[in-house]
Amino acid sequence: MNEQRFILDNIMSLKRHLLKRFDVYQITADRQGEKSWQVSEADEVLPLFGPKNLPLVSLKRFFFAENEAIYSFNGNTFSPIKPKIEPRAIFGVQACDLTAISYQDTFFKDDPYYQARRQQTLLVGIDCNSPCEKGFCHEMNAGPHVDSAHADLILSQFSDLQNTAVSSTETAKGAWLLIAATEKGRDSLQGLVLQNAPENWPELRQQLKQQVVAKFADFSYIKSSTEIINKGQVPAKLWEELSVRCLACSGCTNLCPTCSCYSSYEQYDSESNQTTTRRIWDSCQFEGFQREASNHNPSQLAAQRTERFWFHKFSNAYLPEFGRYGCVGCGRCEQTCAGSIGVHSVMKRINQVCCN
Amino acid sequence: MLQLTPRSIRIVDSYEDGQNAKHVTFEPIDFIHEQPVRIGQFFMLSVPGAGLAPFTYTSLPDSKGRFVALIRKVGKLTKAIYALKQGAVLGYNGPYGQGWPIEMLANKEVLIVAGGCGIAPLAATIDHLIEIGRAGNTTLIYGAKDRPSQVLSRERRNWQNKILVHDTFMQTNDADKSGTPTQHIENVLAESDRHPQIVLTCGPEAMMRSVAITCHRLLISSDKIWLSLEKRMRCGIGLCGHCYLANELVCKQGPTYRYDKLLELENKTTVFHKHTGLYQYC
């Protein structure tokens, strides 16, 4: 579909409109200032957005549930348990997380549980107008601006259209470019009176993006370490050195918006005499992840498991299937890793050891 | 869309087959196998109360849809199956994975090397080779710990006078049969004047690797050597991630692998397990 572009003077008018048809989720800060995705209970609460408000926990669980019932057994028959999801709009998603959702859309394209949630969801992306603290989305081709293929609606904020200065206040008001990137996005706007955006606005948005990109720090070590990984030049000894710092806490895999491993377990209810099988997020960083009943474990060494995670994020071997790397540059692994072996630490160390 | 919910099957027959192993026949309840099962594929068996795990078809579904699996008591799940009686209802998903390269076997001299329960995924292949009139060109070297632990006794009895079978045992006084199956490959081939053009192997991973290395040394090119890998699996459909091997998932792209392709995959990462004998410290 061709993009449709409109002017919006206040994103709250869009939010109010969407609330008529959707449960609207937005980034909300708790009393400690921690950001998370929550359903908007009060109509007038301004959604948080932008680089300073990237929640530590991504949107992954909205589609690939952290723990869900998948089928039940009554002693004779197995019956699927389908998720019941009301139409929902997720308002203000950053480009990196949208890229990750697109990656997961490919991985889970035939998963009925993922798709049931995904199809009920309208994604409203907002361009980031500055780099965030740990992020390197631009280096990973995942931001800072939203890719039209990754969201239904896209918002881009211009504070001053004459010189396209970037807004630093992140307020709702001002001049917004609203793009309907999909059919679903266009349908969601029905009933909202909108004025078409001037023809030069996409160009202004592009200029804005260049200004933001120029503000990113130098992440060239990410690119060079990716090359080293793909040439198989990271010595086993270095993976071992890095793996010593892994506490197998699964923080990286839980927070990584493109990690998708799971396990399953059963719950028996004596009253109904039913067994319910549930799936739950799992982690390749756990020692027993691949261990077989015979105790043979193909990834027994911590070094193998550490290498596994980075291979999954940066190997060219995944490009034919996904068209991109598994890392979207959100920096959450760096933020959470207690052993300081998140993406920046690991890629810097690889660069340091292998390039000197 | 993928089907995660199993379909019901019931145990219609079972008998002890070797030590701590059972030969179990399953029957579909209210479904037919829409997809034909290929030799070497596997299915996921859900055992209510114990979880799910992959098993191979020792024999493919017959006209009534009945199929057979060999179940050896190893962990929690197989212990639970072992305790089940005739008529017990279980869950079934499949067929999954890529089977053996059956089309390639038609006009070839075939060597099959199996270890322990690793003979189970090869049984239907041997039956097929006999059926298509290739018994005289099929050699089986079957290794087991000792004679009582050999499995598929009825099937092997049926093969005995049709294909060339050489048994090996880790524990035996018979020098002709003592050792691992790999140690016997060269002698068996020399004595029978057989020159295999394709090799299929299944058993403990270390055994399969040594079989592949030995056969390669005997000038069988690595693209003619096939292995069937065993991995922990939680779904069988390429989602749960447990059976990863570099960028592939053994449940989807495997479990059968051509040796050269397997090495290619393994060379994508740098840390190897010590037990494989390929551990390399740079």
Helix content of chain B: 10-25%
The assigned structural class of chain A equals: alpha+beta
By CATH, the architecture of the largest domain in chain B is named 3-Layer(aba) Sandwich
Largest interface: A-B, 56 and 50 residues
H/E element order of chain B: EEEEEHEHEHEHEHEHEEEHEH
Number of domains of chain A: 2
Biggest sheet of chain A: strands, sense, closure? 8 strands, mixed
Uncertain parts of chain B:
274-282
Strand content bin of chain B: 25-35%
The number of distinct β-strands of chain A equals: 12
Distance between the termini of chain A: 49 Å
Discrete helix count of chain B: 8
Enumerate the strands of the largest sheet of chain A in spatial order, edge to edge or round the barrel. Answer: 3-2-6-7-8-9-1-10
Domain 4Fe-4S ferredoxin-type (chain A): 235-267, 318-346
Pfam families (chain A): Fer4_22
InterPro entries (chain A): 4Fe4S_Fe-S-bd, 4Fe4S_Fe_S_CS, Znf_C2H2_type
Keywords (chain A): Iron, Iron-sulfur, Metal-binding
Summarize it.
The complex is a heterodimer of chains A (356) and B (282). With 356 residues, chain A is of the alpha+beta class.
Could you please describe the fold and organization of this structure?
By secondary structure, chain A is of the alpha+beta class. Chain A contains 13 helices and twelve strands. Chain A has two domains: 4-66 and 81-213, no CATH class; 220-262 and 283-355, no CATH class. Helices cover 31% and strands 21% of the residues of chain A. The radius of gyration of chain A is 22 Å and the shape is globular. Chain A starts with a strand and ends with a helix. Mean pLDDT of chain A is 93; it is low at 160-170. Chain B is an alpha/beta fold and 282 residues long. Chain B has two domains: 7-96, Elongation Factor Tu (Ef-tu), domain 3; 102-228, 3-Layer(aba) Sandwich (Rossmann fold). Helices cover 24% and strands 28% of the residues of chain B. Chain B has helices at 76-82, 102-105, 120-131, 153-159, 181-192, 205-217, 250-253, 259-266, and strands at 7-16, 21-28, 42-47, 51-56, 67-72, 89-96, 110-115, 138-144, 164-169, 198-202, 225-228, 244-245, 248-249, 256-258. Chain B has a six-stranded antiparallel sheet with strand order 4-3-6-1-2-5, with helices on one face. In chain B, strands 9-8-7-10-11-14 form a six-stranded mixed sheet, with helices on both faces. A two-stranded antiparallel sheet of chain B has the order 12-13. The termini of chain B are far apart.
